[in-house]
Design a protein that fits this description.
This protein has 247 residues and is of the alpha/beta class. It contains seven helices and seven strands. The protein has a seven-stranded mixed sheet. Strand 2, helix 4 and strand 3 form a beta-alpha-beta unit. Helix 1 packs across helix 4. The relative contact order is 0.14.
């Protein structure tokens, strides 16, 4: 079966999450969804906090594919600043509205709608040269057709002297292959490039291939979804500035 082009995945995901953002704004239908999402992101934030040494006075974070900002809200008290990045304007609007409602300044917590993964999209650096101590990407890697290209781009926004990339996503399991439609009925055709998640060797290879060092991959969270037990991993790697040896 021929894979859709990357631009098709991007457009499908943008449309899907813009529509989902509208459902978050529907008072009755969004309450239970918001509660479940908040519990999941609280668990994810706790895992991230255990695997990175945050400094509330200096740590600058990019939350990539940030959605409505639930993860950012849990991490914010431990950071100097967080910039959320998403291709969905609807999600970015929710993120920024929530930050304002919490009394947070844009210098502390803000989101921007920009597609940093597509070649030729940006004429200028969307972050004005800012580089980050930590880039986190949670529950989103399965949407990217090329995780190699996505990882390379995210690493380029890390500080060269130890910036860390963290990815949280589903661990692939053969036992779940025949149940994916039941577990993830919301995964319509065209929004998920990697159904069922990832094997450890695939993520480790991609991280190492981009030059990240001290690469780790470990099960981090156990979740239940539609009656099935799922295991979620946390992978991380550190960018190190390469010294040029003079001959």
């Amino acid at each position: 079966m021929t894979e859709p082009p990357t631009s098709t995945y991007t457009a499908s995901n943008r449309d899907h999450f813009n529509q989902l953002a509208k459902s978050y704004q529907a008072p009755r239908s969004s309450i239970e969804l918001a509660k479940r999402a908040d519990i999941r992101y609280r668990s994810t934030a706790n895992a991230i906090l255990q695997h990175y040494d945050f400094d509330e006075d200096s740590t600058e974070v990019m939350d990539f594919a940030c959605g409505s900002g639930l993860l950012s809200q849990h991490l914010a008290p431990h950071t100097k600043s967080i910039v959320g990045v998403d291709i969905s304007q609807g999600m970015v609007d929710l993120y920024n509205a929530s930050a304002v409602n919490q009394g947070l300044l844009p210098e502390e917590l803000k989101a921007v709608c920009v597609d940093i993964l597509s070649e030729g999209i940006q004429e200028e650096d969307p972050f004005g040269g800012q580089r980050f101590d930590l880039v986190v990407c949670t529950s989103a890697y399965h949407h990217f057709q090329s995780i190699d290209d996505a990882t390379k781009r995210l690493v380029s926004y890390l500080k060269e002297d130890g910036g860390t990339l963290m990815v949280v996503d589903l661990i692939y399991s053969e036992s779940l292959v025949d149940c994916l439609d039941e577990i993830f009925p919301e995964h319509q055709d065209g929004i998920v490039a990697h159904r069922g998640g990832f094997k450890s060797e695939a993520i480790i290879h991609v991280f190492q291939n981009t030059g990240l060092e001290d690469v780790e991959f470990q099960p981090a969270i156990n979740v239940k979804k539609n009656g099935h037990s799922l295991e979620v991993f946390l992978a991380k790697g550190r960018r190190v500035k390469k010294e040029i040896v003079q001959s």
